[in-house]
Amino acid sequence: MAQRVKRGPDRKGRFGPYGGQYVPETVMQALAELEISYRKLKKDESFLTELRGYLSDFVGRPSPLYFAERFTAFLSGPKIYFKREDLNHTGAHKINNTIGQILLAQHMGKKRIIAETGAGQHGLATATVCARFGMECIIYMGAVDIKRQAPNVEKIKLLGAQVITVESGSKTLKDATSQAMRDWVTNIRSTFYIIGSVVGPHPYPMLVRDFQSIIGKETKRQCKEKFSRLPDVIIACVGGGSNAIGIFDTFISEKSVQLIGVEAAGHGLNSGRHAATLSKGKPGVLHGSYSYLVYDDDGQIILPHSISAGLDYPGVGPEHSALSDSGRVKYVSATDKQALAAFELVSKLEGIIPALETAHALAYLIANKKKFKVRQKVVVCLSGRGDKDMANFSENDKD
Amino acid sequence: MNRIRSYIKQNKKQKLLIPFITAGFPDTKTTVELIIAAVDSGCDMIEIGFPFSDPLADGAEVQFSSYHALKKGMTLHKTLKIVEQIRKTSEIPLILMGYYNPVLSYGEKQFMKDATAAGVDGLIIPDLPVSEASDFKRYAAKHNISTIFLVAPTTDKARLKKIEKSCSDFVYAVTVTGVTGTGKVFGRDTDNYLKGLGEVLKKKFVAGFGVSSPETARRFCKYSDGVVIGSKLISLIRNASSKSRGVKDAARFLSSVRRAI
User: Fold this and answer.
1) CB nearest B154 (choices: A188, A285, A297)
2) CA B76, CA B99: separation in Å to the nearest integer?
3) Could you tell me if A131 lies within 8 Å of chain B, comparing CB atoms?
């Protein structure tokens, strides 16, 4: 039974205490303009029709809800369904958001697009929509990620975008994000910043969630078609948390549905080498919002670690922080090793190579199969495909 | 009385020369020497930067100095120790500048208390806009710390007035849409922007970001009540053959700016 749940953000861009706008003064005006444009367009029927058109004909939505028969048999427990975001154009959920934001940018008259990327999936999805709409595109990517996600870098370049290598700090997603923000501050009048997850200053966590919420809406409808009721459990991986919020959103008010977010435990939760922000972090401010964050006693951000570039981020979306505090979503974690094993297992059992990010959600399920009952229906958000991870997998498989 | 307030009161016509010095760069001892040299070069106030791992409003020079200061173990606690040390010999107004997370991590309330006790007079937090700063302002007022907020070329008039109200003694005007130390050549639009600010603001304001020569400082001081210089000093120190040489070069540069404004 659906219950009314108070959902953020509030007038100040907060989900409970989390969120807000912790940014240099230079971008405050741009955030206000973005919010006004977005609030107007999301009620504009012609904008929504345009968006739906691209989602169906360019992205390929709806993505199927697939019964993973052999994986289910392997677990000999609950029935497992995959929400196939890997089948979207560009191979992940990221494009749901970039198509929405590029239309927004177009309506706002912006010509230059910037984005940060970790796994390269958001960079690829951004470069793709920029090519489609004929916009200048600059992608910031850490030097470490450029190496471990080489196929995506090649694709981004082929699509006509410029890739700027970020050599500062950890040379991963955190530093790519900082560098993209510096570009935005500098080119604020001409440039639209397409943020790739439910992070950053308000209104980004809200608008990215809204654009990704189609995942959950379709899932709900497909569950009713396939087994005439709501699922019992939904599991998604969480880095910044956009695929997770996307599939959770519609179900947050459905109290019978258990929601589980899986973070990257890297070498282990107590190893100091992880990216499990909600499990091990505390509230703080980075990249424009107040949210759980991993930092030391002096407030300095601790370099995260995950084998998956898309989860290798020290923060998490502010709405996840609120959902974690309230207990509505349970946040757990899976290690590098578990994720690699799940990556291989699901490839062999289902003929679907999942992204290493997604493999964390699958790994949690494998490790905790006894916690689920046979009659339960479990949906895993299969957020992306793993082609990009082949080199990384082969290298680690040798260890 | 707060040292910033009394200084401005006693030196109404003085153009303010404010260097930005990263605590712990190139090391703690040199930081103290630099501050003393800056005082001797005729600076009016000192901005001491406490480093942060992800300085997103800063360009390459401040990123570099912050990174190295952190590598050498600089912290916000240790920055307050530097302030205490300076206070043994000087009553110059001292302003701490840095990002919000170290302050949050310290505990806003406790930090304000300790900062006043150490001898801090003002605070600048570039990633804390006025709309998020109500607790911050309350604690600062309680401990007699001057709050200084930034305005930018993209700030409209209504916001400008609101920000001015939140600044205890003076406003910090960012000269460009951009990060610190870009070495960019300023066009007429910057002059017009600063001139316009002078017409709207009643409080004093200083201009910062990209001020790298006595000529630019003089040009901006036509409209503003002073300048902040940071990245240029860091690059002088980086490029000097020794630390003591770096201190001398920085002091000589600051003296030349002093003469120019």
Assistant:
1) A188
2) 11
3) no
Cβ–Cβ gap A186/B179 under 8 Å: yes
Under 8 Å between Cβ of B205 and B224: yes
Inter-chain contact B53–A181, Cβ cutoff 8 Å?
no
- CATH code of the domain in which B94 resides: 3.20.20.70
C-alpha dist (Å) from residue B131 to A25, A319, B69: 10, 20, 30
**DSSP of A313-332:** -SB--HHHHHHHHHTSEEEE
- For A61, list phi and psi in degrees, rounded to 5: -80, 160
Inform me whether the C-beta atom of residue B77 falls under 8 Å from chain A C-beta atoms: yes
Give the distance from residue A287's alpha carbon to the nearest chain B alpha carbon, in angstroms.
8
CA nearest to A34, candidates A195, A177, A245: A195
Minimum distance, in Å, between the CA of residue A296 and any CA atom of chain B: 8
Residue B112 and residue B142 in contact, taking contact as beta carbons nearer than 8 Å? yes
Q: Which two tokens stand for residue A369?
A: 């199969």
CB spacing of A182 vs B177 below 8 angstroms: no
Residue numbers of the domain that contains B103: 3-7+16-260
Shortest CA gap B255–chain A (Å): 30
CA A283 vs CA A202, A223, A241, B71, B113: distances in Å: 17, 36, 16, 24, 22
Tokens 């010999």 sit at which residue? Answer: B89
End-to-end C-alpha distance for chain B, whole angstroms: 27
Q: Across the interface, which of B127, B176, B177 has its CB nearest the CB of A285?
A: B127
Q: Any CB–CB contact under 8 A between B171 and chain A?
A: no
Q: In angstroms, rounded to a whole number, what is the distance separating the alpha carbons of residues A143 and A167?
A: 6
Token duo for residue B19: 């260097």
Residues 181..210 of A with a Cβ closer than 8 Å to B: which? 181-182, 185-189
**In this complex, which of B56, B76, B178 lies closest to A178 when CB atoms are compared?**
B56
Given CB atoms, is A285 within the 8 Å cutoff of chain B?
yes
Q: Is A30 on the interface with B (CB under 8 A)?
A: yes
Three-state DSSP at A293 gives strand
Q: What is the pLDDT along chain A (399 residues), one digit of tens a residue?
A: 455 556 889 999 999 999 999 999 999 999 999 999 999 999 999 999 999 999 999 999 999 999 999 999 999 999 999 999 999 999 999 999 999 999 999 999 999 999 999 889 999 999 999 999 999 999 999 999 998 888 899 999 999 999 999 998 889 899 999 999 999 999 999 999 999 999 999 999 999 999 999 999 999 999 999 999 999 999 999 999 999 999 999 999 999 999 999 999 999 999 999 999 999 999 999 999 999 999 999 999 998 999 998 899 999 999 999 999 999 999 999 999 999 999 999 999 999 999 999 999 999 999 999 999 999 999 999 999 999 899 888 888 755
Its pTM stands at 0.96
Task: Measure in Å the smallest separation between the Cα of B153 and chain A Cα atoms.
Answer: 7
For the packed helices A204-212 and A214-227, what is the interaxial angle rounded to 10 degrees?
Answer: 30
Q: Residue A160: which region, alpha, beta or left (left: phi > 0; alpha: psi -120 to 50)?
A: left
Strand A136-142 relative to strand A112-117: parallel, antiparallel, unpaired?
Answer: parallel
Provide Rg for chain B, Cα atoms: 17
B contacts of A299 (beta carbons < 8 Å): 52, 76, 101-106
* Residues of B forming the active site: 47, 58
CB contact under 8 A, A21 and B132: yes
Amino acid type, B216: T
How many domains is chain B built from?
A: 1
